[in-house]
Amino acid sequence: MKNTFDIDYLTYIESFITEDRQQRFLDVLKNRTKHFTVAIEDVFQLHNTSAVMRTCEVFGIQELNVIEERFGKDIDKEIAMGAQKWVDVNRFNSTAACINNLKERGYKIIATSPHESSSPLDTFDITEPAALFFGTEKSGLSDEVIKAADGFVHIPMAGFTESLNISNSAAIIIQDIANRLRQSDIKWNLSEKEIIDKRIDWTRKTVKDIDFITQKYLEGVV
Question: Domain 35-195: what homologous superfamily?
Answer without folding.
Answer: SPOUT methyltransferase, trefoil knot domain (3.40.1280.10)
